[in-house]
């Protein structure tokens, strides 16, 4: 279902962000697949890989400057999953950046929610199905 192989970006604190993403992405079926310690990374920071079925599609790492304007969108098969993500992400400490709803400026079936993670990354979950 995913059109992304993986996305990676720097965060201020890999452990704070790990906690956020573990909780916020659980409704999508994502979990932490792997952690790579500082002794095995180019930047000397910790890397966490999240995904499904043993394959990490989202990588976060610290010990580098977090990027500005980073956005990532995940696909959901059902609108209810978008709603679950939004609730879980807010409960995990995320900041509202757009409650679940139809975004007709994209198209009539574009149902999405937006949350800023602990570093201000705009995380979106979108369902483009009518359900």
From TrEMBL:
Pfam families: Glyoxalase
Gene3D superfamilies: 2,3-Dihydroxybiphenyl 1,2-Dioxygenase, domain 1
Every VOC domain range: 3-128
Name recorded for this polypeptide: VOC domain-containing protein
């Amino acid at each position: 279902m995913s059109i992304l192989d993986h996305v990676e970006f720097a965060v201020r604190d890999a452990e704070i962000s790990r906690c956020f993403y573990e909780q916020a992405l659980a409704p999508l079926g994502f979990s932490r697949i792997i952690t790579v310690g500082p002794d095995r990374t180019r930047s000397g920071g910790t890397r966490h890989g999240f995904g499904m079925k043993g394959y990490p599609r989202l990588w976060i790492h610290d010990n580098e400057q977090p990027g500005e304007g980073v956005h990532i969108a995940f696909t959901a098969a059902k609108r209810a999953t978008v709603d679950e993500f939004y609730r879980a992400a807010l409960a995990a400490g995320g900041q509202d950046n757009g409650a679940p709803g139809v975004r007709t400026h994209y198209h009539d079936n574009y149902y999405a929610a937006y949350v800023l993670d602990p570093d201000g990354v705009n995380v979106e979950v979108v369902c483009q199905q009518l359900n």
